[in-house]
Amino acid sequence: MQPTIEPMRERDVAAVARLRLATFFEGTARTVEEDAAGLRRLLAGDGFEVAFVARLGDIPVGTCLLVRHELEPAHDLTPWLAGLVVDAGYRGAGIGSALVRATEAHAAVRGVETLYLYAWEARDFYAALGWNMIEIFAQDDETMALMSCQPRA
């Protein structure tokens, strides 16, 4: 079954927040409620920033964001592809690539000429999708790669 990729709706917020918390914020003080509030701000925004969700049936299995601001103050660049995550049980089926492509297309339609992201472990994944390495740097004692692409609709 192929996933449906579309902008996140209110009905997705809790499940997406739990997925994001388990992936990005485990062991931190961040709560599901705090992450859900941030996702709701994206839903209520001006439409430029967006959270995409991948669904199999009615089950959210992945997400990816387009945001104006990412790690601060590492770089004064904008906008960012951020928060790509696919539930571990669904990885390797092209869902992450589909989420990245949906985010790139959204950016291109809104006139974005260069899109940025931070990654380290997933840098080869993004490179295979056409993203270019700009810089390797340290942020909070972690090695990070700054990457960019020219999004296409």
From TrEMBL:
Q: Which UniProt keywords apply?
A: Acyltransferase, Transferase
Membrane-crossing residues?
Answer: none
CDD domains attached to this UniProt entry:
NAT_SF (cd04301)
Q: Does the keyword Transferase apply?
A: yes
Q: Which domain of life is it from?
A: Bacteria
Give yes or no: UniProt keyword Acyltransferase.
Answer: yes
Q: What is an example of a Pfam family matching this protein?
A: Acetyltransf_7
N-acetyltransferase domain boundaries: 3-152
MF terms per GO, please?
Answer: acyltransferase activity, transferring groups other than amino-acyl groups
Instruction: Supply the PANTHER family for this chain.
Output: ACETYLTRANSFERASE, AMINOALKYLPHOSPHONATE N-ACETYLTRANSFERASE-RELATED-RELATED
Q: What is this protein called?
A: Putative N-acetyltransferase YhbS
Source species, please?
Rhizobium loti
Source taxonomy lineage? Bacteria, Pseudomonadati, Pseudomonadota, Alphaproteobacteria, Hyphomicrobiales
